[in-house]
Amino acid sequence: MPSFQPLPWSPSPDDSLTHLAEKLLRDRMGLSLREPLEQLPRFDSLTDARLWRVGSKYLLKCVPATHYNVETALLARNLLVACQGLDGIPRLIHADAPLLESGHVWMLLPWFSGKPWNPWHIPELGIHDAACSLLKRMHDRSESVLGYRIGELPCVASRWDWLKRLINMESLLAEIDRMGDLERRLVQRLLARQGDFERTMRKMPVNGTMIVIHGDPRPANWIINDGVLSGLIDFGSCRWDHPASDHARLVSGLPRSLSGEEMTVFLARTNRWGAMTRWLAMVVESQARWSLSEQQRVEELLKLDETDQ
After folding, report:
1. Which one-letter DSSP state was computed for residue 256?
2. Which of 76, 199, 289, 305 has its CA at 20 to 30 Å from residue 30's CA atom?
3. Are 145 and 294 found together in one domain?
4. Strand runs (DSSP E) across 205-283, as ranges?
5. What is the pLDDT of residues 75-88, one digit of tens each?
């Protein structure tokens, strides 16, 4: 399985956002900059986040200050504060995080040395168990400090939306001969999974207990250093939801058959089907061909789905 290549970034002489980042670090966060900021390449063309490495110690992130991003940043701040002291969970550097400035939300976090976990290239070797253990400690701290809610589970509601979208795409079957090989394989796989998707959804509870969770602990958001789990990054998807959603997001990205707690398996399996549905909808609605990196992601999803049969 080929590794995903980050999208290239070419700095411009008048990169106003980088200049603003330098000013905020100096004036609002009290850091004395000894070297230029290193803007990191984006790994996902769907996000508007900008990332900078600040020396060898810090990571600066900013996203547009939409209602969703501000709400998510506040939840992330609360979760990170609740988890202070847990090894592997980043600590907030500046006390007033998240910082709102010039239409963006800014957060300064520690830099974790190492590389994102790619389970296709780096064997598990206890990494999965260590990640699950850290998620459990984070969830326990979240519930004890931030409390819990009872209500409609977002992780289940979103899957009903995915299923409706998949059912609406049944008409694509008539166009299958005109598609490229990858689109054809994806349509055939999804239509073959539709019945399983519906049966799985009927087994899921609509309501349940929710806590503040990370929201996106997929393997790429775990940093591995010398074969050891270093920490969890990217708290930009924090929300109130069932804790099994976090565990499902982790295991659904591992190339192996799904097993374990029933709710986690249900969510992980539908994670894979839902992600394939979103990618198919993207190319259908845009009437465009996938880029090479997008093709690689779809190929990975197809291969992940095969491991669970």
Report:
1. S
2. 76
3. yes
4. 207-213, 222-225, 228-232, 239-241
5. 999 999 999 999 99
